């Protein structure tokens, strides 16, 4: 698939980006659970909470949704008594993967084709996501005789339109002193929470490979810079002990494209999707964003400063040779930590 094809790909169709990797559509919302009585000090029953939410999805929406138990994740606050008054007692995520009903219920525009059909489906998809949030947000839950209120939000990173609005406003009003001579446009994506093994060289290592990662993401367009590193903090709670975790399971990938157009198409393909690998039952619900801090631009400036400093030191009676810096960021290696 060419880079231009990603821009015209249907929102509800899978997108292959490699011989074994495919981007599949899904809807994800974040959940928070607050007790109506702020002095509540007992932990919420996560089993009852999950059952109440799954029953609601089956019986209270315009289209009944059967969500697998594994796609509804609930995390309780460890010590409810230590939480602040306005903090939730539990939070989690809901992922809806079976979206076939949207394709089969397009109504009067089902016979349309081309750009009109794509635009109509995009509007239908956006309307349904808003409907889902409106139906669930603020709903009352009674669990074990205690009343709770559910908060539901759609992450900005799951909406391409919201992400595009964000970067357009950022570069229009807050370009942090960049040159005003020409229009600033983002060109770098940041991907967190993808399985390291999926980007490793088979039968060589379980660590993500720069070469493999470059090959996969070059599907979207020409790459200027790329960085791959372990992402051990992904999905970890702020109060969770990091020493009990296995490192190296996830990686963080930063890709800078040569053209803004390729960045645009990559973001459109990655937003609102999960990653699947052929032969694996795992679906990677990654987080995608764009680089606001000029990662590669700042690192290049630091490299140039160091290089100029070395050159001035070497300008005396003796000549010194210094190593050249690669245009690609080296892999970040960290010692592995395993559960005792």
Automatic annotation (TrEMBL):
Biased composition (Basic and acidic residues): 321-333
InterPro entries assigned to the protein according to its UniProt record, in alphabetical order: AK17A/B (IPR056852)
Region named Disordered: 297-340
Name recorded for this polypeptide: Uncharacterized protein LOC115739562
């Amino acid at each position: 698939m060419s880079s231009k094809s990603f821009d015209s790909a249907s929102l509800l169709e899978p997108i292959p980006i490699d011989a074994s990797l495919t981007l599949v559509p899904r809807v994800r919302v974040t959940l928070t659970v607050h007790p109506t009585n702020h002095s509540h000090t007992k932990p919420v029953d996560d089993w009852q909470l999950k059952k109440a939410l799954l029953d609601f999805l089956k019986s209270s929406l315009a289209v009944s949704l059967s969500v697998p138990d594994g796609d509804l994740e609930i995390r309780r606050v460890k010590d409810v008594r230590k939480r602040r008054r306005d903090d939730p007692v539990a939070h989690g995520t809901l992922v809806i993967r079976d979206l076939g009903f949207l394709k089969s219920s397009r109504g009067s525009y089902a016979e349309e084709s081309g750009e009109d059909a794509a635009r109509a489906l995009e509007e239908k998809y956006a309307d349904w996501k808003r409907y889902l949030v409106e139906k669930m947000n603020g709903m009352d839950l009674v669990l074990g005789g205690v009343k709770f209120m559910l908060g539901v939000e759609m992450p900005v990173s799951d909406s391409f339109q919201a992400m595009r609005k964000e970067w357009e406003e950022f570069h229009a009003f807050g370009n942090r002193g960049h040159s005003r001579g020409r229009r600033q446009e983002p060109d770098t994506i940041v991907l967190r929470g993808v399985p390291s093994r999926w980007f490793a060289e088979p039968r060589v290592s379980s660590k993500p490979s720069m070469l493999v990662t470059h090959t996969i993401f070059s599907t979207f367009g020409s790459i200027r810079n790329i960085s791959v590193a372990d992402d051990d903090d992904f999905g970890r709670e702020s109060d969770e002990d990091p020493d009990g975790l296995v490192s190296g399971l996830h990686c963080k990938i930063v890709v800078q494209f040569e053209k803004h157009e390729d960045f645009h198409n990559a973001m459109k393909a990655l937003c609102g999707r999960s990653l699947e690998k052929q032969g694996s039952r795992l679906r990677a619900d990654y987080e995608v964003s764009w680089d606001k801090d000029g990662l590669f631009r700042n690192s290049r400036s630091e490299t140039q400063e160091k290089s100029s400093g070395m050159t001035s030191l070497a300008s005396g009676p003796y000549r010194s040779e210094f190593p050249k810096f690669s245009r690609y960021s080296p892999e970040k290696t960290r010692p592995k930590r395993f559960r005792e």
